[in-house]
Amino acid sequence: xxxxxxxxxxxxxxxxxxxxxxxxxxxxxxxxxxxxxxxxxxxxxxxxxxxxxxxxxxxxxxxxxxxxxxxxxxxxxxxxxxxxxxxxxxxxxxxxxxxxxxxxxxxxxxxxxxxxxxxxxxxxxxxxxxxxxxxxxxxxxxxxxxxxxxxxxxxxxxxxxxxxxxxxxxxxxxxxxxxxxxxxxxxxxxxxxxxxxxxxxxxxxxxxxxxxxxxxxxxxxxxxxxxxxxxxxxxxxxxxxxxxxxxxxxxxxxxxxxxxxxxxxxxxxxxxxxxxxxxxxxxxxxxxxxxxxxxxxxxxxxxxxxxxxxxxxxxxxxxxxxxxxxxxxxxxxxxxxxxxxxxxxxxxxxxxxxxxxxxxxxxxxxxxxxxxx
Length: 373
Description:
Layout: H1 15-28, H2 33-51, H3 58-65, H4 86-97, H5 109-112, H6 159-163, H7 165-168, H8 177-185, H9 188-198, H10 205-217, H11 225-230, H12 239-249, E1 268-269, E2 295-296, H13 318-327, H14 346-357
Antiparallel strand pairs: 1-2
Helix pairs in contact: 1-2, 3-12, 4-9, 4-10, 12-14, 13-14
C-alpha cells in the first residue's frame, strides 16, 4: 500500500549547489553587480565540479562511490495539505479514467495520459478536442510526485493547481466547473466516494483537484535493468551500457540536468533547440535572459518508449536526440552553459543509447476502475 509520508529526494553529490544555481539562474541577469559577484563565484565552483566528470575515470569513480543518488525512493511524497488516503486514491483513479469530466462525455484524462503509452500519448504534440495539434507535447506522468513545478514552462505550482485546467479548457475537455460538479453530484457512487475520501458528500472543485492529484502522485515507472545494476547486479547491463553511463556522467555531461533516480533536476534549461515565439519559461520571466527558450527537463524513465522527444515532439528518435546534443544547439545568450558541442564518436553515441535503454522497465498491469453511474 502506498505510504502517506512526505519524504525528501535523496540528494546526490553537490546537488544542493546544482539546484541553487539552476533555480536562481534567472536572477543573475536582473540583479545589480553587488549581487553578481558571489553568484559568479558559485557558478565557477559549479563549472569546476562539472569538470570532474571530464577527467578520465572520474564518472566511473563517482558512480561507484555514490550510488545512492540513483537509488529508488522508498516512499511517495504527499503534501501536508493533501495527505494520502486509500479512499482519496481510489476516487482520484475513477475521476482520471472517467469521460464524464469532458463536455462531450467522450474524453478522459487518460486520453492524453495513456498508461499503455508511459502515461503520455505518443504524439508529437497534444491532440485537442477538435483533433487539432496543440502547441506542446503531452508530458508523461511518471514520477510526477517529485516535480515541484508542472508544465513545460513551470506555470503550475503543484498537481492540485493543474488538475482542473485540461478539464475546463475549451480546446481539451471543454467542461465548465459548475457542470463538472453538477454531473458528479447526481451519481450515488460518486457521492459515496467523496464521502469516504473527505468525510462529506459535498462535491467541489478543491476536492476533485485533491483526489486527482493523489492518484497522479501514485504513478511510478517500472524498475529497469539499470536499477538492478545500481543495486549490485553487475550482469544486469552490458559493457556498452556501462560505458554509456560513464559518458552520461562524464564527457556527454547529461547528468548535469538529468540527475537523480528519476534522471531530471526538474528545472528549466535552454538546450538550443526552440525558436521564434516558442520561449518556454521566458513567457513567464520576460526580462530574464537565461530563461528565454528554457523548458522543463523531462524524466528519462521509460525514455526508449516515449518517442518523439522534446517539448514540441520535434525530435523523432533517441539517435536524433544524441545528435542534437552533440551539435550543441543554437549558440545564444540564453543557452545553458552545459550545452556545447561534445565531439562524440559513433561508438560513444551507441553506448549512450545502450545506457538509455536500460532505464525502461517492463510495463506494469494497469487495472481500470469500475466507473459509477
